[in-house]
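Input sequence (392 aa), recorded before submission:
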Amino acid sequence: MIVRRASLALALVVTLGVAACGDDRKPPPEAAPTAQAASASPSAPPEPFTFEIGPAAGAKNLPITAEIDTRVTGGKVTSVTLTDDKGKAVAGELRADGSSWVPAQPLENNRTYNASVAATAVNGTTETKTTSFTTMARPGGSRVGSGLYLFNGNTYGAAMPVVVEFESDIPESARAAVTRRLFVKTDPPQLGRWHWFSPRMVLYRAEKYWQPGTTISVRTALTGLPIGNRFGDTDRSATAKIADRTLVLDVDNATKQMQVIVNGQVVRTLPVSLGKPSTPSSSGQMVIMEKAETTVFDTRATDGPNGYRINIEYAQRLTWGGEYVHSASWSVKDQGVRNVSHGCVNVAPDQALWLFQQTMVGDAVIVRNTERVLQPGNGWTAWDVPWERYGV
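Predicted structure, token format:
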């Protein structure tokens, strides 16, 4: 798993009502059409049936991420079969928009494949087209390492984004092709989008927090995908669950209080101490990224003489930069009164234990009214970007 930090275009369709200008006199009523005229009115003609597939017959040196293009108007694809040169069938399924058929596993290098696609017009007429193509030899170029922050069988909080990270930068020219090979299914279905936060990190989320109990299935189908002069490293898959409750930690620097909100109801309010003026906490919408009952904070390598090393209990990471919610016995007298931390959210030991027992990775944390704004990509900052700009 990668531990380093690492767009789909959004079309907005707006319908505008047009108001006419003029006097307020009513126009004369139109005569009702006669029965003869009404019966003579033609209905809208059906959309012409067109049907094309790809790759082109005889195409060679295709990447093993090749898909079967299915371009249909006035009808729909009704079946796709793909077999290799030994007659072995390849499983797969249509994309949701019907634009192509995606093999369920990477194709093999230097193999010939035969595809047959049937499409049916609205009038019931069925047409079948075939094509064949050959994949490229195994490439000698370097691979782009990737990682998926969603683990099979785990349960996460309702704010858990699907996080894909890369070991090296993805060129901007290749990002659309990469995200097109990242597949997410949710049950119940919920619209989501991918958004690049850096050349090494892309996150997927819905418009709102996931519905409680949602199942999320992910496939990062990157094996052999051309990425600049390199190729994707591997396919990864995971199916995870979202918890049956929505939990949010809402921290307000103005009051030095944290509200623990479950399914929209405040269940507890805790005093906190945030980052002092010289090391302020970040304001923004964050997600609990990891949890540790005990850990060590050691800043000596980055802060030099001003650094410190200290044992910490009930630590819950919020940012890559080192902001956590954690137990802090040394600041109990300051909690609810003043900020004394290095950027973390300090809570009393007994409250930290209780909080640790309530939360899970993927729960939302909102911090308000501090001197610093959360930087995009400093943690899983998917919810800090407004939906209308997400994926743009």
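Checked by second reader. The mean pLDDT is 89.
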